[in-house]
């Protein structure tokens, strides 16, 4: 086993902090202890907020030229690169992720996202003139109308366990390049990997207070970071249930809130693309064990071919191997903990109670006595009222539904509280794209997919507020100011 990151303390305003309590980090692949990390005392989390507030108000970071911030952040990313081996090993150990996912979907994608975001920010205009009405020019004495995009202030970034590093990159790099100060709070389930950002901040010479990384075992620190008057914005990725609580906690101080929440995305196979369904189903569970908010866990196929698809998907899932990351032949690993496995079990049972059938899987795989494993599971359900078709399971479970025609497929796909992502497959690109335009969701992939620093992602409905990545992801960390300049009369 590769050596994981050695740091066990939190990074608060330029200093490393060790608390009296420790948090045991468990390896979900075998239930062993990865290590114990020091829990940040609540007063130190508040100090992180106050020092972030000071650093922003004094302009030690925000007032630097953008090119200088960019230079420091590239050095910051260089340190992350230097930590490659230990960081990837840490992600594998604390999240039970296959090495390929940790390497490609988190490390490489995160670095590419970070560097491209810096370049994108530098290419954008952050101050520009507005058209001025003739009456204001002539009678009002107005000379100039200016629109400025300025940093929002102090940002709390709260990240999930399933993509701790990539989600941190999506939040802290655009926030920092825009001139904000940030307090990062990773999930208590996977806190070790995020400590690399404290090391990088120290190595790159970020001014004290500009970036802190705090670790906690519960939620008291997160609640402070969503309610403290010194915080201007909360950026959170996680469940819709927690997102609702964050909105309530942020409301008294009217903070800006960006939320990427749950999903129950649909993948629609038009009649000329049904043969691709088995491959699309594999993508739902492979590498992530279904632990992805954008996972297209509702498969919609023509009703007269549903039986054929259920059989094909079941055969594909039968070929997938469940096992630990140490097994190079394993296609999917464990879910994060016992509660996540119990949730998958509960929804399989609910699916059956409501008339659904388990076509494949549905339980714990044989031969894996330790670790939080769950079989890739195919559920054949009658309609979209089944709980397994409506609720986010966040495990390796796919639900297959039949539709009568394209209008019915769109109706079923949109019949959801969520709207984070979606997929449409069809040989006729015009027809497939027409379906994509009708879906009420923040992103739709037609026959393909793309994760890009230049393309925004985010949710409709209860899948979230705001966007990450792209110009919209940078603007999310900025306020808009209008300056009207006229002659003194």
UniProtKB/TrEMBL annotation:
The active site is at 260. Coiled coil: none annotated. It comes from the Bacteria. Residues 16-483 form the Aldehyde dehydrogenase domain. Its EC number is 1.2.1.3. Pfam families: Aldedh (PF00171). InterPro entries: Ald_DH/histidinol_DH, Ald_DH_C, Ald_DH_CS_CYS, Ald_DH_CS_GLU, Ald_DH_N, Aldehyde_DH_dom. One of its GO terms (molecular function) is aldehyde dehydrogenase (NAD+) activity. It catalyses: an aldehyde + NAD(+) + H2O = a carboxylate + NADH + 2 H(+). Keywords: Oxidoreductase. PANTHER family: ALDEHYDE DEHYDROGENASE, ALDEHYDE DEHYDROGENASE-RELATED. Belongs to the aldehyde dehydrogenase family. This is aldehyde dehydrogenase (NAD(+)).
């Amino acid at each position: 086993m590769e050596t994981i990151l050695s740091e066990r303390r939190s990074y608060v305003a330029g200093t490393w902090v060790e608390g009296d309590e420790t948090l045991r980090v468990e390896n979900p692949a075998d239930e062993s202890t990865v290590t114990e990390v020091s829990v940040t005392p609540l007063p130190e989390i508040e100090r992180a907020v106050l020092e972030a507030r000071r650093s922003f108000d004094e302009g030690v970071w925000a007032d630097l030229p953008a090119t200088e911030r960019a230079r420091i952040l590239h050095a910051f990313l260089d340190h992350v690169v230097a930590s490659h081996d230990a960081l990837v090993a840490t992600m594998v150990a604390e999240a039970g992720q296959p090495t390929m996912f940790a390497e490609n979907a988190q490390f490489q994608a995160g670095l590419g996202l970070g560097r491209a975001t810096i370049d994108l920010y530098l290419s954008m205009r952050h101050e520009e003139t507005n058209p001025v009405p003739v009456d204001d020019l002539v009678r009002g004495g107005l000379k100039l109308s200016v629109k400025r995009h300025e940093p929002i202030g102090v940002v709390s970034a709260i990240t999930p366990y399933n993509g701790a590093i990539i989600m941190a990159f999506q939040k802290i790099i655009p926030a920092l390049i825009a001139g904000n100060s940030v307090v990062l709070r990773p999930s208590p389930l996977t806190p070790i990997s995020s400590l690399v950002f404290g090391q990088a901040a120290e190595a790159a010479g970020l001014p004290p207070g500009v970036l802190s990384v705090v670790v906690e075992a519960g939620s008291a620190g997160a609640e402070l970071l969503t309610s403290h008057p010194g915080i201007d914005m909360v950026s959170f990725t996680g469940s819709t249930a927690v997102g609702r609580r964050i909105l309530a906690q942020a409301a008294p101080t009217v903070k800006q809130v960006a939320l990427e929440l749950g999903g129950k995305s649909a993948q629609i196979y038009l009649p000329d693309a049904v043969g691709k369904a088995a491959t699309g189903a594999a993508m739902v569970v492979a590498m992530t064990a279904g632990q992805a908010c954008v996972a297209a866990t509702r498969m919609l196929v023509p009703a007269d071919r549903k039986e054929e698809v259920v059989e094909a998907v079941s055969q594909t899932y039968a070929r997938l191997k469940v096992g630990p990351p140490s097994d190079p032949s394993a296609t999917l690993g464990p879910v994060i903990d016992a509660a996540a496995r119990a949730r998958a079990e509960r929804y399989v049972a609910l699916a059956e109670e409501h008339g659904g059938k388990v076509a494949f899987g549905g339980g714990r795989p044989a031969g894996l006595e330790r670790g939080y494993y769950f079989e890739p599971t195919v559920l054949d359900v009658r309609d979209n009222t089944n709980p397994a078709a409506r609720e986010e399971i966040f495990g390796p479970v796919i639900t297959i539904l039949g539709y009568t025609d394209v209008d019915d497929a769109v109706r079923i796909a949109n019949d959801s509280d969520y709207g984070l992502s979606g997929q449409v497959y069809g040989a006729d690109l015009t027809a497939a794209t027409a379906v994509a335009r009708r879906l009420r969701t923040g992103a739709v992939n037609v026959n393909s997919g793309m994760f890009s620093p230049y393309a925004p992602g985010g949710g409709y409905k209860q899948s979230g507020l705001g966007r990450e990545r792209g110009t919209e992801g940078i603007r999310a960390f900025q306020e808009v100011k209008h300056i009207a300049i006229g002659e003194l009369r």
